[in-house]
Amino acid sequence: MSSRTTSSAWVKGVIDVLEDEGLDAPAMMAAAGIDPAVLRDPDARLPTEKVSRLWRAAAEISGDPNIGLVSALVPKPGNFDIVGYAMLSSQDLRAALQSFSRHMRLVSDAAEVTLEDQGSNVLIRFDLYSGREPLPRQRIEFDLLTLLTFCQWVSGRRIAPVSLSMQPPEPADVAPLAQAFRCPLLFGRDFNGLVFAQQDMDAPLPSYNPAVAELHDKLLQERLAAYDGAGIGLKVRKQIARSLSTGEPRRETVAKALNMSDRTMRRRLQDEGLTYEQLLDVTRCDLAQHYLARPNMTIAEAAYLLGFSEPGAFNRACRRWFEAPPGQFREQLAARAARTA
C-alpha cells in the first residue's frame, strides 16, 4: 500500500548525527526496520513510519527524551539533497524557504512547509505526517531545529525566532527546548512551526548567486518531473487529500481533476499494484492519525475533514485502522507522547 516517504539522504544524515552522539546505529536501524543497504542508495526512499520508529528507538536507547535537540554545528546541505544547495544560492531567506516549500517532496513527501505572512512576522508552518505510527516529539524537534540552524547558517548570522509552536503538550522540563530555540515556546497548538521577523526573512543571503540559482532551479524542475512522473499513486493521493473536506471523492472526479479518464487512471494504478480504494483508505488513515494528534480538533471535525458522512463511519474506520475508536486512539497517542516527553 502506498506510503509517504523520506529520502535516504535525509535519514542517513539523521543517523550520522545520532551516531556522533554515541548511539548504536545498527541497533537503532534494527529497531526501526531500516536496511543499511538502503542508505547507500542516494535515490532510495524510506516509509515515514520507519523514520518515526528510528526516533522512538533513539529516545529509548539513549534514555534521553531530549535527543531530538541534537544538531550538527554546521548543517550539511547534502542531507537536504539538491534542495539544500538551491536554498544556499537564493536571494534571501524568504526565497530560500519558498524554494524549500516547493521542492520539499524531493526530501520528503511526509512533510509540508508553508509560509504565512502575519504583519511584521512570517510563520513557517511545518506539517509532518507519520502514517500509521505515532509522531515522536523528538522527530518534530529535530526537524524544526535543523530548519532553524540551516536558516541561521545560510544567513550568516544567528537569527532568533519570534516564537516556536508545537503540537505536543509541554514536556516536564522545557529548559532544553528553551536553550535550543531561544524564543517563547507555545505547546499543544494545532500546528508545528517557527515565526520569524519580516526583516530577517528579507535580508540578502551572502551566498546569493543568480546564475547558480537559475541552474539549481532547472535541475530541481528536472528532478521533480522525474519524481512526479514515477508514479500516479502519489498524484491520486494528493488529489484525494485536497478533496476530502467536501465529502468522499468519487474516483471519476479525481481522474477528471488529474486530466485523465477513469479507465486510464485505473489502468495506471493497476500497473503500480494499487487501486483507488486502497489509496482512499490509506490517505484517510494517514490524515486521521494527523488530525487526532491535534488536541484542539474535535472528533466530529476530524470526521468531516476526512469526508465521512456521519460519525459512525469514522468510528468503524478507526476500529479497523487502529483497533480502537477515535477517542480511545487519541488517548493512546497522548499516552505515547507523554512516555517520551
Structure, described:
The protein has 341 residues and is of the alpha+beta class. It has two domains: 5-223, H-NOX domain, CATH 3.90.1520; 231-339, Orthogonal Bundle (Arc Repressor Mutant, subunit A), CATH 1.10.10. It contains 17 helices and seven strands. The protein has helices at residues 8-20, 25-32, 36-39, 48-62, 82-88, 93-107, 137-155, 175-181, 198-201, 210-228, 232-243, 251-257, 262-271, 276-292, 299-305, 311-322, 326-339; strands spanning 5-7, 45-47, 111-118, 121-128, 163-165, 185-186, 192-197. The strands form two sheets. The chain has a five-stranded mixed sheet. Helix 8 (175-181) links the parallel strand 5 and strand 6 (185-186). Helix 2 (25-32) packs across helix 4, helix 5 runs antiparallel to helix 10 and helix 11 (232-243) crosses helix 14 (276-292). The protein starts with a strand and ends with a helix. The model has no long low-confidence stretch (mean pLDDT 88).
